[in-house]
Specification:
The protein is α/β, with parallel strands linked by helices. It has 15 helices and 15 strands. It has two domains: 174 residues, VC0802-like (2-Layer Sandwich), CATH 3.30.2130.30; 216 residues, Rossmann fold (3-Layer(aba) Sandwich). The strands form two sheets. Strands 1, 2, 3, 4, 5, 6, 7, 8 and 9 form a nine-stranded mixed sheet that branches. It has a six-stranded mixed sheet with strand order 14-13-10-11-12-15, sandwiched between helices. Helix 6 packs across helix 11, helix 8 runs antiparallel to helix 9 and helix 9 crosses helix 10. The structure holds adenosine-5'-triphosphate and magnesium ion (MG).
């Protein structure tokens, strides 16, 4: 019986860590989080996750759902790459059969491919050492598949053989999202607008292990129901990487009107930004978030000059993370296409920032002047009302698409 089980080639996914391998004593914490996140991402697909010698193996995925599992795992931060592998007993014949099967699949895609065998063994008692395996298996593959050739330096296919407690044979390495497992770096509050930049900023921070919460300010009737749906959809797209996200939807119209009626025209944008930050900070504290995240980039618009950013930060005491600060718009657009938020971000539904834009906004606000303008009107009642009317949605990757 034992023989039967070990002789059968089992398809497994071999998972390589990203930066976690640099961790020392607290490494188990990161590994544990990564395993949890892998399980969450595979929810609904049968699987078992095993950890052994600094590696994660996923077994038991039904053949017909293998590709879907790979697609989901590509979005799990903390994974450097995955390899679909055949796990077999260490009998040499079984190793060779697994290698032939994998080579056949590669040759079907490109008959005259170049390859190299790359063997490693942690089982030092194995009857061949790595060099011997490389030479012997290389030779056998060449004999069996005359259309292929060896290229030691730049092979198109690395046929890898790992001799561990079993033999693992694989011919593909699929690059994944890298970064740190979500949940290893605490929670932060993303200010999301529906534009191109803020979803990218959220992605970048989740990639460093942050759990995201999000806040969006809307201005009915100046912004539409569609603008709100767009933001929910952007958050849903982010949640395919970052896990469930609590989204706070804040009615902002009354505050915006009060700003326009009571503050100097050229300062309205910067004061609006300050109030957004102040409300976001209040919501963040309630939500257990320790920092704010925005999609601002230095110099992109008047409210993103160094002086404007200082005037905005002056409204809050939490750290404000701006992961896009040094990025050009083109670079941010490329990034958003890569992560899949671009097409939704460019849908033409107006954001509340674009509704009342002053003709000549200050580009070098003086903090003291802005504070004085803001203090000329008591916004506190409207702030409390907006917070009281804030709605919270828990957005999940599995939610239906809204737009
Ligand atoms: P984005 O592409 O993210 O909209 P932007 O370049 O258009 O950014 P602004 O509109 O000035 O810049 O907004 C700067 C940042 O302020 C955004 O990246 C976002 O973090 C935040 N923000 C703007 N509008 C809103 C909103 N309605 N709700 C929540 N956050 C917002
Ligand atoms: Mg915007």
């Amino acid at each position: 019986m034992e023989e039967l089980i070990t002789n059968k080639a089992e398809k497994v996914l071999l998972v390589r860590y990203a930066e976690i391998h640099l961790k020392g004593l607290n490494r188990p914490f990161f590994e544990q989080k990564l395993i949890e996140n892998i399980k969450l991402s595979l929810r609904g697909i049968p699987n078992r996750v095993d950890r052994e010698q600094g590696r994660i193996y996923i077994v038991g995925i039904p053949e017909e759902r293998f590709d879907e599992a790979v697609e989901r795992l590509k979005r799990v931060f903390g994974i450097h790459s995955i390899s679909p592998a055949l796990a077999v007993g260490k009998d040499w014949d079984l190793v060779c059969d697994a290698a032939y099967e994998l080579m056949e699949a590669q040759i079907a895609k490109k008959p005259d491919l170049s390859f190299k065998v790359f063997a490693r063994r942690s089982d030092k008692h194995y009857f061949m050492n790595s060099d011997q395996i490389n030479r012997e298996l290389g030779h056998l593959v060449l004999e069996r598949f005359p259309s292929v050739h060896v290229d030691i330096h730049k092979p198109e296919v690395s046929l890898s053989v790992e001799i561990r407690e079993k033999a693992y044979v694989y011919a593909e390495e699929i690059p994944c999202a890298n970064g740190m497992p979500v949940g290893t770096a605490g929670r932060a509050m993303l200010l999301i607008s529906g534009g191109i930049d803020s979803p990218v900023a959220g992605y970048m921070m989740a990639k460093r292990g942050i759990v995201l919460s999000a806040v969006h300010f809307y201005s009915y009737p100046y912004t539409s129901e569609r603008a709100r749906d767009k933001v929910v959809e952007l958050i849903r797209l982010l949640s395919t990487y970052a896990g469930n996200i609590r989204l706070h939807l804040v009615p902002f119209t009354d505050l915006q009107m009060a700003i326009y009626d009571n503050c100097p025209d050229k300062e309205t944008t910067i004061i609006m930004r300050r109030l957004m930050m102040e409300l976001a900070e209040r919501i963040a504290k309630e939500d257990g978030a320790k920092a704010l995240i925005t999609g601002e980039a230095l110099g992109q618009v008047a409210s993103q000059t160094l002086e404007s950013l200082c005037a905005t930060d002056d409204a809050v005491s939490m750290p404000v993370f701006r992961p896009l600060i040094g990025f050009d718009k083109d670079e941010i657009m490329d990034y958003s296409r890569r992560i899949g938020t671009y097409e939704t971000s460019i849908l033409p539904y107006e954001d509340c920032c674009t509704v009342f834009v002053p003709k000549h906004p200050v580009t070098r606000p003086v903090v003291e002047d802005i504070r004085a303008s803001e203090a000329s009107y008591d916004f506190s009642e409207l702030i409390e009302k907006a917070l009281a009317e804030t709605e919270v949605l828990v957005v999940k990757a599995s939610d239906p698409k809204l737009i």
